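Q: Here's a chain of 126 amino acids. Please give me its 3D structure as tokens.
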Amino acid sequence: MKLRSIAAVFALAAFLAPAALLAQGHAHKGKNGGQMEDAGSYHVEAVAKDTTLTVHLTDHDSDKAVATAGFKGLAILVVDGKSQRITLAPQGENLLVGTSTAPLKTPIRGAIQITNSKNATVQAKF
């Protein structure tokens, strides 16, 4: 009887482990080809191209675009082995955009902090 209980526990752990790993981040690319992470009630998609970092924001529950008017952001990324701060400002409907002093390589590594128009701050780790 004990052997069956132990086997059941291992079977349950094997079933739940992949779900726990997926809950930590997104394994797929976003609609715009960028890296996806969650930050509070937002999905954050970071697209790095040359020296430009574009952050697309969508609602976590509905996956609809979030208007970024009044938002601000700060990306702290590792670029060429050094920490670099990139100020992000609203652009377009649901974008925050900033420029790096050096070309950005993908996948990006670091964190993006986003402050909404109500001064609530969330962070996405990449």
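Q: Can you summarize the key feature?
A: The domain at 29-125 is CATH 2.60.40 (Immunoglobulin-like).
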